[in-house]
Design brief:
elongated, three-stranded mixed β-sheet, mainly alpha, single chain
């Protein structure tokens, strides 16, 4: 009976006008960067940018005598960095990246000696990314989005999509599923218990969203694969998360993001199910989910002055935006993408799935109480007759 109900609900959701709209919009959004070139931020590692921001400045300072009275270790560091900076002006990308990786290590050493004023986390993130790039068998930088291979492109898609563009379709599908139970005009009439119908609606909304998301990724994946190949799954990702540097590969970042997206979808369906069990209408779940979706975008949410700041790592709203938690490939790793100490992908998965499990349990309890109430009312009416 459950599978029959599940198939019926899937048909209802996929025939609903929301599903093809969601599929077309996401497919177009995902595929456009594979057709129309977009910037990737790789210019920070290219010769012209390095010349203007590092080489010319250091050469001018050394030639002007600014370091004549500096300790010998600083003079030696400057000489070595000048040699390496000149290497970056050549056409050999591999040699340039290896030189930049060594420059980053020299900068870190100068900072540790107290001879460089800088943000240590930024230095560490830059060094980690450059070390990873220089260590590839075939070091390469992608100048535009149309040059990116499939694995890199897919990982970057999830990281750059506006969070609400992912969250809104989840809410819409959950609303449509529970509205189908509530309204006869959706044709969802099966001899099932209320608890069974709620379970069917929650599972169908989750599965249809995940399937639709995968289908929406296919055009971009095919374009990137046909043009640039699958790509190196070990391509490095280095980001700042919770004040620490997170080192991943594009494949691990992609898998983490997909798992987090699935957990968020399960959470959204669970919230809708619990609120439907209480209110017997789909509207409250939709409204609450929309409100929750906007919470992480509130400027004060991640501030230390926020009243629930210490509890942020344990709140599901902290993890509703997938990319900052899962990670994504970027050359511009200059900001803390998830400025909450203690908030990690592992904890986020536990929080979202744990809260979802609690909501599912509560939904079952509510349905059981409601069913008992109806049974008592029926027995009472039979007794009066």
């Amino acid at each position: 009976m459950f599978m029959a109900g599940f198939r019926s609900m899937v048909r209802i959701l996929t025939r609903n006008g929301l599903f093809p709209l969601f599929l077309v919009l996401l497919s177009a959004y995902f595929a456009l960067p594979s057709i129309i070139p977009g910037g990737t931020g790789s210019f920070t590692f290219e010769a012209e940018s390095i010349k203007v921001n590092r080489l010319d400045i250091l050469e001018a300072a050394v030639s002007s005598g600014a370091y004549d009275t500096a300790p010998q270790n600083i003079k030696d560091a400057n000489e070595r960095q000048l040699e390496l900076l000149r290497v970056t002006q050549g056409d050999d990308v591999a040699a340039s990246l290896k030189a930049q990786a060594e420059i980053a290590r020299i900068d870190m050493g100068l900072y540790e000696e107290g001879n460089l004023s800088a943000d240590p986390t930024l230095l560490e993130a830059s060094s980690a990314l450059l070390d990873g790039l220089a260590g590839l068998d075939d070091p390469v930088l992608f100048d535009t989005t149309v040059q990116e291979p499939m694995v890199y492109r897919l990982s970057e898609i999830i990281g750059t999509i506006p969070p609400l563009l992912l969250f809104v379709p989840q809410v819409a599908l959950a609303f449509a599923a529970f509205r189908a139970i509530e309204s006869d005009r959706f044709g969802f009439q099966l001899p099932m218990s209320e608890r069974g119908k709620i379970a069917v609606a929650a599972c169908a909304a989750t599965v249809v969203f995940v399937a639709g998301f995968v289908l929406a990724l296919l055009p971009s994946a095919l374009l990137s694969a046909l043009r640039n190949g699958v790509g190196d799954p070990s391509y490095p990702v280095a980001m700042i998360q919770g004040g620490s540097v997170l080192e991943l590969t594009v494949l691990s970042a992609l898998l983490r993001s997909i798992a987090m997206l699935l957990a968020v979808t399960v959470f959204a369906s669970s919230v809708s199910a619990a609120l439907f069990a209480v209110s017997r209408t789909a509207v409250p779940g939709c409204l609450i989910l929309i409100a929750l979706g906007f919470v992480p975008s509130i400027p004060q949410y991640f501030n230390e002055t926020f009243i629930l700041h210490d509890a942020l790592p344990f709140l599901p709203t902290t993890y509703l935006y997938v990319a900052p938690v899962g990670g994504w490939p970027t050359y511009l790793n200059l900001t803390d993408v998830l400025p909450v100490q203690g908030a990690t992908w592992e904890l986020g998965m536990c929080v979202l799935l744990g809260v979802s499990a609690a909501l599912i349990f509560i939904t079952g309890v509510i349905c059981a109480f409601v069913r008992r109430g109806w049974n008592r009312m029926r027995r009472g009416s039979h007794a009066r007759v």
